[in-house]
Known about the structure:
By secondary structure, the protein is α/β, with parallel strands linked by helices. It has a single domain, classed as Rhodanese-like domain (Oxidized Rhodanese, domain 1, 3-Layer(aba) Sandwich), CATH 3.40.250.10. The chain is 32% helix and 16% strand. The protein has 6 helices and 5 strands, in the order βαβαβααβαβα. It has helices at 8-13, 26-29, 52-55, 60-67, 83-94, 105-109; strands at residues 2-5, 19-22, 48-49, 74-78, 98-101. Strands 1-5-4-2-3 form a 5-stranded parallel sheet, with helices on one face. It starts with a strand and ends in a 13-residue tail after the last helix.
Amino acid sequence: xxxxxxxxxxxxxxxxxxxxxxxxxxxxxxxxxxxxxxxxxxxxxxxxxxxxxxxxxxxxxxxxxxxxxxxxxxxxxxxxxxxxxxxxxxxxxxxxxxxxxxxxxxxxxxxxxxxxxxxxxx
Length: 122
């Protein structure tokens, strides 16, 4: 079930409350090699890295296990500019999650003073 879009301000206020999925490649996620047009490198705090290239091949059970969320939970996907995350939202929605796309994605977030992480949370 797709819920639509989410803006940076709402997402920033809900960190820790909603599951955030970064569907970029691992080197984009950890900040070691991102797009040169981004002001900062890293990922949104608390995000789980599940590259789109992996997501498309996972079963419902594998997605649930990787994300650590219950069926039907709200989840926000983002990437660099919203295109990969739009595809992820369609996949997650088809699995029954309340999926939303942060279409501004890392390209927008990196230009703000909002927090970021450069290592995967433990």
